[in-house]
Design brief:
It is built from 13 helices and eight strands. It is α/β, with parallel strands linked by helices.
Length: 290
């Protein structure tokens, strides 16, 4: 399978560990990711709060580049990129005048006929489920995971058209197919405050702390994520939140592709697990990986 791939800014920088695991897992599954040529930032997560036309243009340019390269489908691993690309595609698809305006701004013809998908969706397709089962070498038995979707992967429902916006299951189903147990918890689709960290750090700490507390109280050994912003917020702020709440969470925040890679028998370092701030050693020990 060949897919146009939009890595977004994060997977080439702060979420390099996510990028490593995406590449490793896709190679195992026979997915040839072709980066969108000359891609640029999609505008997540602040552009749309400042200038609607500019925000749509940023994403539309990338869609046009993928489409002009001959692709009918573009995949991303970042929930923020997924949200912005999907929003642009939907708005352009409904409005000819908007397409003409964005084409004038970007210099690219935009038809909005290309499908936008998240890699979690790709891995949830029936054919891919069979490939994943065939690659399973070290089942993740013995660990309990809190699948965290955050607020952008499934909402707004009318735009994202992916899973249940309040009680999503796709990541839970995938992790269980790898042998892990997933917990029931109330914060799986709540906001972690990631976009507020630079401007309203107090609110961000409170929201992220609520997510961490909920995951811990559910009995999870780790939190599984599909968003670089969520991962950074819950991982990088965890020590500060622990201090402010007078407790120790010690909850690794691990990308779902890193967990897939472990189940495929890929060495942890190739998956970027050594780059996490909160050590994943306890999880690795439970699944028999050193």
């Amino acid at each position: 399978m060949e897919l146009a791939y939009f890595p977004g800014c994060s997977l080439h920088s702060m979420a390099r560990d996510y990028g490593l695991s995406v590449a490793a897992v896709c190679r195992r599954l026979g997915i040839n990711l072709k980066e969108v040529p000359a891609w640029s930032c999609c505008g997540a997560s602040a552009a749309h709060s400042r200038d609607h036309a500019a925000a749509i243009s940023l994403s539309a340019r990338n869609l046009a580049l993928a489409e002009n390269a001959g692709f009918t489908r573009v995949a991303t691993a970042c929930a923020g990129c997924f949200n912005r690309l999907k929003t642009a595609s939907r708005q352009l698809g409904k409005n000819e005048k908007a397409r003409q305006n964005i084409a004038r701004i970007t210099g690219f013809p935009v038809s909005a006929n290309i499908e936008v998908t998240h890699l979690l969706q790709v891995f949830s397709e029936e054919g891919m489920k069979r490939r994943i089962a065939a690659e399973l070498k070290k089942p993740l038995t013995g660990i309990r995971l809190a699948a965290y979707y955050g607020c952008m992967l499934t909402r707004p429902a009318a735009v994202m058209a992916f899973d249940d916006p309040e009680q999503p299951r796709a990541m839970d189903d995938l992790l269980r197919s790898l042998g892990a147990e997933t917990v029931q918890w109330p914060h799986k689709a709540e906001c972690c405050g990631g976009s507020l960290t630079p401007t309203e750090p107090g609110i961000a700490l409170e929201l992220a702390g609520d997510v961490l507390e909920s995951a811990r109280d559910s009995g999870a050994d780790a939190i599984a994520v599909a968003c670089p912003m969520c991962q950074a917020n819950l991982d990088l702020l965890q020590e500060r939140i622990s201090q402010s709440r007078g407790t120790s969470f010690n909850l690794p925040v691990i990308y779902f592709t890193q967990l897939m890679g472990l189940a495929f028998g890929i060495p942890p370092r190739e998956l970027g697990l050594h780059l996490l701030m909160t050590s994943s050693a306890q999880v690795l020990k439970k699944v028999g990986v050193t």
